[in-house]
């Protein structure tokens, strides 16, 4: 079975997380021999310091793994650029490494200006193949040994327009045929917040110093590559999963760490990009400092959103906005001068993040809180070492790389663990979904089987219902035939009239079942068609089929069986009465039935052109027809359906009896109007009050 898109999107970052862990472990293992060689090359701290501009190294072993730092008191002349042949009288003593303050020397220059350093090194015997190693001098310098210019960085000048700042760590070869080295360093600083010989100068075997320099460059390059892998991996995961903000912030933090590794220390950036300006180098260095801490805070907050309310994040990040604005806008002296103010902000923000985010996550036992706390401590340690190093309080940063490496490794493990847990959860949910789908398919299959059974039962029900209607119709026709046979044996006119009325009622009910037998639904009947057929049958029975007219204005009106039976019984009585009392026996006349709908009522009008209703009946209304069974049936049906029966004259006749309520001349033509309330749509038929027996009583 192939993996879905969602599963692939989880497997890819999971595999990438493990890959970056392997890469990082390899990156840690590569520099180990280098670190070991560097540790053996450094002499014990505090040995052989210069005093009064003189360092005595007579009798020292300059083997392949032995180096000596040129630390201690150098001669220093502020405000002048001197060589060894110039007058050094009045020179001051200046500790190296340390920053200068030219303002204290009476020059009024403060941190920016020029100065010259001098140190004599007594080797005790002629020496060949020596080397001097240097890292950074703020911000341009020239190195002169025994009157010969052997190295430097940038271009020194007493004025800013004549000087060019640069950081170029390196190693120069020197020889001491007379066993004495006269070292002069001319320094100019017009750009940075501090100047002077910041870092130690080291003397030793030239080959060993070059090897150490290459080793440090390789370590910086490997560290940069490993951090870039972390950054690109995290940013790639974020590109596929934009909602995972933690990968975005971790990628930005790793990118800042990677850039800082090549813009400080050995300044590998200037070796990779020789044409890059000093200003670009410094601004990149401050980018890595001023944006790394906010990225770290955002990273912590994204891992534990429940512990990082919006107000807390704003309070932690807001103080860094002014520093971020300085990076592209401020001149270098102002930008570099802001660093001492950045330190307390960084320390406060990191402590607050440690307490209020990571600390609360540990207390609330959030997943990954322990690993994040360890990583935060490592990052805090790295930040503390960086602050001490930038403040010139420490000269070595070996622990810095270890702390950053532990931080990146711990976060790699944390991210991998989070991805594994997420992948496990997805697998579990996938299994549950598969089981649910299987159960759903089984339910659907059972539903289909039940639906097929219901369809079969419905077909059987329709068949049985049709058969029932057919048999009821046949039975009613049989009863009608029996009644007809019985009527043929009668000679009494009253009895014959009763039999005819009974047969008409039977035909009305039988026709309902006949229509239902032929109906597609088997439950409702077309009202217009039913009335036409019923009137036609009644007309044929009374011999008046040719003179009967039906006007049915009830298009698409379908009603239930119970309503049709009631209407059929009422029509049978009214139409039979019209046929019996019309002028048919005199050789003419007929009846007309009109059917229409008015709102929620059905209006039926039956009229004939006979002599009309008796005046006494019109005067007394329905009360006068209480002895007639037919009028009782119609009146009962009208009451049942909340309607009424109105007797009157046909068009053209006298309506004195109807209008005035008193006996008058005999009316011409009879007219009966029946109004019935139509049943509501979807109403359940067949309550006890709707039975045919109730209509007859």
Describe the protein in words.
The strands form four sheets. Strands 1, 3, 4, 5, 7, 8 and 10 form a seven-stranded mixed β-sheet that branches. The protein has a five-stranded mixed β-sheet with strand order 13-15-16-18-17, covered by helices on one side. It contains 20 helices and 18 strands. With 697 residues, it is an alpha+beta fold. Helix 3 (206-240) runs antiparallel to helix 4, helix 7 packs parallel to helix 11 (339-363) and helix 12 packs antiparallel against helix 13. Helices cover 53% and strands 16% of the residues. The relative contact order is 0.06. The two termini are 77 Å apart. The model is unreliable at 6-12, 17-46, 653-667 and 682-697 (pLDDT under 50).
Write the layout of secondary structure elements.
Layout: H1 5-29, H2 32-41, E1 54-56, E2 67-69, E3 72-78, E4 92-96, E5 113-122, E6 127-134, E7 140-145, E8 148-153, E9 170-176, E10 180-189, E11 202-205, H3 206-240, H4 245-263, H5 268-272, H6 278-290, H7 292-303, H8 310-317, H9 321-329, H10 332-337, H11 339-363, H12 369-390, H13 398-488, H14 493-518, E12 524-526, H15 527-542, E13 548-553, E14 558-560, H16 561-581, E15 591-598, E16 601-608, H17 615-620, H18 629-640, E17 644-649, H19 656-660, E18 670-677, H20 692-696
Parallel strand pairs: 1-5, 13-15
Antiparallel strand pairs: 2-11, 3-4, 3-5, 5-10, 6-9, 6-11, 7-8, 7-10, 12-14, 15-16, 16-18, 17-18
In short:
By secondary structure, this protein is an alpha+beta fold.
The residue-averaged pLDDT reads: 78
Approximate helicity band: 40-55%
Tally of alpha and pi helices:
20
Please report the distance between the alpha carbons of the first and last residues: 77 Å
Total beta-strand segments: 18
SS-based structural class? alpha+beta
- Which strand-content bin applies to the residues? 15-25%
Low-confidence stretches: 6-12, 17-46, 653-667, 682-697
């Amino acid at each position: 079975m192939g993996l879905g898109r969602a599963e692939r999107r989880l497997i890819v970052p999971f595999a990438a997380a493990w890959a970056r862990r392997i890469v990082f472990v390899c990156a840690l293992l590569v520099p180990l021999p280098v670190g070991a060689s560097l540790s053996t090359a450094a002499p014990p701290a505090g040995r052989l310091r210069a005093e009064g501009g003189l360092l005595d190294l007579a009798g020292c072993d300059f083997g392949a793994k032995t180096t000596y730092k040129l630390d201690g008191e150098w001669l220093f002349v502020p405000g002048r650029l001197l060589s060894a042949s110039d007058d050094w009288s009045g020179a001051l003593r200046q500790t190296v490494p340390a920053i200068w303050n030219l303002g204290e020397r009476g020059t009024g220059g403060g941190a920016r200006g020029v100065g010259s350093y001098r140190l004599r090194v007594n080797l005790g015997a002629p020496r060949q193949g020596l080397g001097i190693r240097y890292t950074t001098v703020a911000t341009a310098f020239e190195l002169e040994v025994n009157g010969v210019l052997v190295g430097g960085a940038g271009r020194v000048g007493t004025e800013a327009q004549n000087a060019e700042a640069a950081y170029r760590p390196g190693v120069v070869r020197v020889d001491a045929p007379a066993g004495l080295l006269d070292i002069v360093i001319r320094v100019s600083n017009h750009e940075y917040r501090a100047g002077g010989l910041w870092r130690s100068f080291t003397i030793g075997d030239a080959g060993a110093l070059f090897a150490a320099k290459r080793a440090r460059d390789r370590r910086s390059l490997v560290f940069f590559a490993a951090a870039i892998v972390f950054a690109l991996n995290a940013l790639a995961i974020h590109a596929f999963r934009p909602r995972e903000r933690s990968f975005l912030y971790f990628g930005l933090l790793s990118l800042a760490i990677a850039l800082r590794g090549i813009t400080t220390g050995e300044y590998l950036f200037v070796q990779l990009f020789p044409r890059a300006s000093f200003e670009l180098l410094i601004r990149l260095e401050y980018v890595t400092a001023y944006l790394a801490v906010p990225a770290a805070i955002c990273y912590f907050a994204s891992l534990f959103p429940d512990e990082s309310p919006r107000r807390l994040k704003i309070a932690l990040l807001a103080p860094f906005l002014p520093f971020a604005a300085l990076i592209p806008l401020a001149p270098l002296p102002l930008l570099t001068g802001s660093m001492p103010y950045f330190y307390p902000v960084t320390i406060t923000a990191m402590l607050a993040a440690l307490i209020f985010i990571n600390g609360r996550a540990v207390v609330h036992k959030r997943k990954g809180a322990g690993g994040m706390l360890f990583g935060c401590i490592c990052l805090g340690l790295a930040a503390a070492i960086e602050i001490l190093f930038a403040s010139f309080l420490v000269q070595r940063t070996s622990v810095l790389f270890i702390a950053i490496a532990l931080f990146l490794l711990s976060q790699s493990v944390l991210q991998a663990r989070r991805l594994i847990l997420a992948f496990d959860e997805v697998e579990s949910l996938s299994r549950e979904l598969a089981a649910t789908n299987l159960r759903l398919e089984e339910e659907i299959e059972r539903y289909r089987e039940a639906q097929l059974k219901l369809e079969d039962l419905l077909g059987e029900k329709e068949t049985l219902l049709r058969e029932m209607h057919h048999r009821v119709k046949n039975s009613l026709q049989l009863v009608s035939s029996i009644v007809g046979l019985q009527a043929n044996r009668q000679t009494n006119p009253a009895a014959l009239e009763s039999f005819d009325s009974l047969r008409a009622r039977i035909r009305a009910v039988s026709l309902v079942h006949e229509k239902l037998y032929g109906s597609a639904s088997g439950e409702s009947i077309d009202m217009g068609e039913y009335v036409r057929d019923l009137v036609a049958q009644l007309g044929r029975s009374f011999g008046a089929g040719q003179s009967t007219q039906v006007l049915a204005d009830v298009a698409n009106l379908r009603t239930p069986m119970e309503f049709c039976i009631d209407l059929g019984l009422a029509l049978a009585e009214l139409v039979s009465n019209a046929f019996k009392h019309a002028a048919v026996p005199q050789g003419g006349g007929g009846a007309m039935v009109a059917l229409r709908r008015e709102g929620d009522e059905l209006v039926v009008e039956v009229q004939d052109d006979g002599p009309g209703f008796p005046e006494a009946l019109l005067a007394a209304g329905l009360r006068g027809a209480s002895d007639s069974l037919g009028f009782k049936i119609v009146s009962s049906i009208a009451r049942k359906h909340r309607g009424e029966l109105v007797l009157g004259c046909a068009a053209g006749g006298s309506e004195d009896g109807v209008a005035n309520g008193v006996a008058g001349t005999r009316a011409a033509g009879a007219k009966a109007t029946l109004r019935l309330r139509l049943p509501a749509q979807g109403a359940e038929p067949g309550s006890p009050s709707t039975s045919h027996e109730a209509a007859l009583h």
